[in-house]
Write a structure and sequence with these properties.
The structure is a single chain. This protein has three helices and seven strands; from the N terminus they run E-E-H-E-E-H-E-E-H-E. A seven-stranded mixed β-sheet has the order 3-2-1-7-5-6-4. The protein starts with a strand and ends with a strand. A hairpin with a 5-residue loop joins strand 5 and strand 6. It has one domain. About 20% of the residues are buried. By secondary structure, it is α/β, with parallel strands linked by helices. Helix 2 packs across helix 3.
Amino acid sequence: MNYRFVKLIYPYKSKDGNLTRISSLKVHLKNKSNTIYDTVDQFENEIGSKIKKTIKKVKKLVLLREIINLHNINGIKSMDQISTMVKQIKSGKEILSPRGLTNIKLVKTKYSEWILFDGHHSLLSYMIAGRTYLHEVPHLIVEN
């Protein structure tokens, strides 16, 4: 395959809390050795063009605690940063990058396992703040 789908997903306010706003883009890979990080960079550079936006009802609930957390050997570095993020979430704000995009980035394996490859502090902060399901937090998914 010479492309990956990238989906940027945000919670969408609704009565039952079961809707998401999805922006998706088919990212054409410049070469076969493009990593998921290269794909995310390319997505961020192309975000203004050819993006498809939809509102969708969540079909399958994904528990945050079941996401496989790939992290380097250093682990969680800053509990102060997490504490600040938790306060921000509880005040009604989302944790976003300076460009307004989510820090939480995942891939879904062919065996339907969810793997977090970026945004470890953010995801932990949402969990501490009381969020339970993936659709309740802004996140980005790289498919293929």
